[in-house]
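On clarity, I found the account of how folds are encoded harder to follow than it need be. An entry of this sort, consisting of the sequence and the corresponding backbone structure tokens, reads as follows:
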Amino acid sequence: MCAAPSRASSGAAFPESSAPDDSVRAVVDAGGEPWARILDLLERRRCELPEGSVLELHSANPQVRPSLRAWCRLTGTVLLEEDGTDDRSAYRIKLPSSNAPGTPTSSPLQNPETS
């Protein structure tokens, strides 16, 4: 089920002063889950949310940061902010728009019926 468009609660890791187009549409609280599980959660949200949406990831796994950065590069998402302590981090991620420069597109080889 998709999250309703809303700003994260007042206890959010990020300040309320962000621009309106950077409002968080969904929060993924991954706890201490390993990257493989977090990846599944992010991919599900990426498919559910509209293009250009912002989601927030909370993680207690310190090894998420490098994997998340790589995932952002591969998927054309933008890591807008990182906020962390020794035991918990929050990341604000903007999903790509279809017209965003550098956004990966599917190859005709992946969809042969369209060529």
Observations:
- The radius of gyration is 15 Å.
- The first strand starts at residue 24 and ends at 29.
- The helical segments are 35-48, 64-75.
